[in-house]
Amino acid sequence: MKAVIYTKYGSPEVLHLKEVEKPTPKANEVLIRIYATSVTSGDVRMRKADPWFVRLMLGLTRPKITILGVVLAGDVEAIGKDVTLFKEGDPVYGMTIKHFGAYAEYKCLPEDGILALKPVSLTYKEAAAMPFGDTTALHFLRKAKLKAGQKILIYGASGAVGTSAVQLSKYFGAEVTGVCSTANVAMVKSLGADKVIDYTKEDFSKNGEVFDIIFDTVGRSPFSASVKSLKKNGYYLRVVHMALSPVIRGLWISLTSGKKVIGGVANVKAENLVFLNNLIEAVQLKPVIDRTYPLEEIVEAHQYVEQGHKKGNVVITI
Known about the structure:
Low-confidence stretches: none
Number of helices: 10
Distance between the termini: 11 Å
Number of strands: 15
Largest sheet: 7 strands, mixed
């Protein structure tokens, strides 16, 4: 099968297309013929080993897993002898998480992994644009116990997680303020945001407004100013929370005040996809796709994502 591999950490140019062995499903696994994947911020960080200590998980000098990609959409081509949840021919979508491997024509996943039937209303490309942002946003919003009527500010509202967070927050009945650049203001408004702040023209932390939740989806919000812009028992959510300094500061804030700082990696389960499927079919949640590249142009796709200005998701077709 065709796959994009990398044998060393570095720039997008370390990625290259190669013929590798097609996997065979184990007894509890399904073999998926992948038609679409996406380039997530996580893929970019893993490719670069950024921050450095991710090498403790991925391999100190070179990656132990050589095929990146955590999101997939495709058809079940074969099943292991013990599989009961899926059958051959089922259109599915999901996430590989720590196993990676979606930058390829085929991938085996356990049937009880993060996998669900693809929503009927979505194409494979659209389905590949959903899991990463949607499940991440859902995880953090649930951690903050978002309720109807609360005020939430979403920093980085135009990215993969941000566009999902805006839509999910509106579904939960919150009053949503999005923060993004000038070029993305109209798009974020179209997703349902009640107010959009252009960070190139205004600093949200200096207008005197306070929020129940501030959700930083890109790891670029001012830490101290964000905490000060929270209500007494507010939540500061940070998707990118891997550096030591914000971890320590977050723990201190959480221990010494009524405010809570929550970061880390989203805990994703198949049941999350089922919940999201219902919203997708009810047109409460829709994919946002910026650009689409074929697998052969994975280097260009990574170059674009690494610029940090994508709107929603960058999809790869296979």
